[in-house]
Design a protein that fits this description.
Elements (H helix, E strand, L loop, with lengths): L4 H6 L64 H5 L4 E7 L4 H5 L1 H4 L13 E3 L5 E3 L1 E2 L12 H8 L7 H4 L10 E2 L6 H9 L1 E3 L2 E2 L6 H10 L17 H7 L4 E5 L4 H6 L5 E3 H10 L5 E4 L17 H16 L7 E7 L31 E3 L8 E2 L3 E2 L1 H11 L6 H5 L24 E3 L1 H6 L8 H8 L13 H15 L2 E3 L2
Helix pairs in contact: 8-13, 12-17
Organism: Polyangium jinanense
InterPro entries: Alkaline_phosphatase_core_sf (IPR017850), Phosphoesterase (IPR007312)
GO molecular function, one term: phosphoric ester hydrolase activity
Length: 487
């Protein structure tokens, strides 16, 4: 699939500018007034803004609090107190697959499942949505053609047909709170976005390109893009500090040869503790090996829960919590069913005006709405739009200009009274099982090929340390109280 990749990339300019010399943008302060908004509610003790609060789960916002009121403030005013953005993009899960049971099982007012959703099978029978107990299901088809067949012009009835076979019912499966408790706890405590769509109705790389640059430059598959103009270029120009923290490989290194402004995930935990995180943080999960925690099938989703909990808790205990925003999202649906027909948007390339399926997405932080379902239409480019708003960057293409920023996820009343973080349920991890696990199916083949071709500097390829990295991340989570090591 990557024939000719070496010749193509050898001519590309390497690197997109580093973050090392960037000057931190000072916090704007939390003194922006809020008009017409309810009080912050009975939050538990903060123990200082770097400490963990004792707040319980939310059922749908504090009494008297609106989940839509902006307090008459502009997006720029709402975003002004935030100077630390942490973005964690996981892999290959749809909204209904992960959060649809918020409605079906728990009765929350969210665009989720009602239990009647079904798709036809090749033999003419119907497969209805059902609870999925497998933590490591097979990897369903989710490339450009498969995703469009699943969509079927908005009927969303091609998921089972695309994954026909012994595991075809898995794509109609959903998980519940007991299986992914961290995600549900975050949905209780912060803003869950039930209209966040993947940027592209296709696989990983085009969607991550849109997260990083607001375009895939016409790329529909998992292939590199040359001369890519990323958000990091504009952050450099504005002297806004940034870094990509990664596990085994930084996706951007293989996708558009970004080789600077990178650090191992271990450094993220150290920087969070020291209060020295840059203004903009992108985190790449572990993509390869038995310790992979990216949630890409057939990787164990319990390791994904451990990563999410560890990242959130590291930020929660950081001196930077009181001026932060944590964005958790997934690159694309991964072939799993979602019942909402994706809308369109504006794009400089007509073929990319169609958005992809919904993905699980949470906006958290001291200013995020508590227990609210935010129905604004978002996509991955909304992250870029938010950074443009906050740091005065230009919206450099049509897609970015058309995207909604994330300010509607913020509660005006909290700007002058930031909320403490919540304590997440700890994730149990068996170190013996983790160390014994091996990758069952090959994933991220294109990224693997880019690495094996030698085009990426050897020092950026940490796959050989994969299990050691997985252990260090779990141990970091345990020190934070986010993970319980069983053996």
């Amino acid at each position: 699939m990557l024939l000719g990749l070496g010749a193509a990339l050898s001519a590309a300019a390497v690197g997109c500018g580093g973050a090392g010399s960037a000057t931190d943008v000072a916090g704007a302060g939390a003194g922006v007034g809020a008009s017409g908004a309810g009080g912050a509610g009975g939050a538990g003790g903060a123990g200082g803004m770097g400490g963990m609060g004792g707040e319980g789960g939310a059922g749908g916002g504090d009494p008297g609090e609106s989940c839509t009121d902006s307090g008459g403030l502009s997006p720029e005013e709402l975003l002004a107190p935030i100077d630390t953005f942490v973005i964690l993009m996981m892999e290959n899960r749809s909204f209904d697959h992960y959060l649809g049971s918020l409605r079906l099982i728990e009765g929350r007012d969210v665009i989720g499942l009602d239990g009647t959703e079904k798709n036809p099978a090749p033999d003419g029978t119907w497969i209805t949505v059902s609870k999925l107990d497998d933590y490591t299901p097979e990897d369903p088809p989710h490339n450009w053609d498969a995703a469009h067949a699943q969509w079927n012009g908005g009927k969303n009835d091609g998921f089972v047909l695309a994954h026909a076979g012994s595991a075809q019912a898995d794509v109609m499966g959903y998980h519940v709170r007991e299986q992914i408790p961290v995600l549900y706890a975050l949905a209780d405590a912060h803003a869950v976005c039930d209209r966040w769509f993947a940027s592209v109705m296709g696989p990983t790389w085009p969607n991550r390109f849109y997260l990083h640059g607001g375009t895939s430059k016409g790329q529909k598959g998992n292939l590199p893009v040359l001369g890519f103009d990323s958000i990091f270029n504009y952050l450099n120009e504005a002297k806004v500090s940034h870094k990509v923290y990664y596990h085994d490989i930084a996706w951007c290194s293989g996708a558009y040869l970004k080789t600077t402004g990178l650090a191992g995930i271990e450094q993220f935990f150290a920087d969070a503790e020291a209060g020295t995180l840059p203004n903009v943080v992108f985190i790449d999960p572990q993509f390869f090996g038995g310790g992979a925690n990216d949630d890409h099938p057939d990787h164990d989703i319990r390791l994904g829960q451990a990563l999410i909990a560890s990242v959130y808790t590291a930020l929660a205990k950081s001196p930077q919590w009181g001026r932060s925003m944590f964005v958790l999202t997934y690159d694309e649906h991964g072939g799993f069913f979602d019942h909402v027909a994706p809308p369109t948007t504006e794009d400089d390339e007509a073929a990319f005006e169609q958005l992809g399926f919904r993905v699980p997405s949470i906006v958290a932080g001291p200013f995020a709405r508590k227990g609210c379902v935010v129905g604004t239409q978002f996509e991955h480019v909304s992250v870029i739009r938010t950074l443009c708003r906050r740091f005065g960057l230009p919206a450099w293409n049509t897609r970015i200009a058309a995207a909604n920023d994330l300010s509607s996820c913020l509660q005006p009343a909290y700007l002058s009274d930031p909320r403490p973080p919540v304590e997440l349920p700890p994730v149990d991890v068996s170190m013996a099982e983790l160390m014994a696990r091996r990758e069952h199916a090959e994933t991220h083949a294109e990224l693997r090929e880019a690495l094996d071709s030698g085009l990426i500097p050897e020092h950026l390829d940490r796959r050989g340390e994969g299990m050691a990295i997985a252990r260090r991340v779990v141990e970091a989570g345990a020190r934070l109280g986010a993970v319980r090591i069983r053996d």
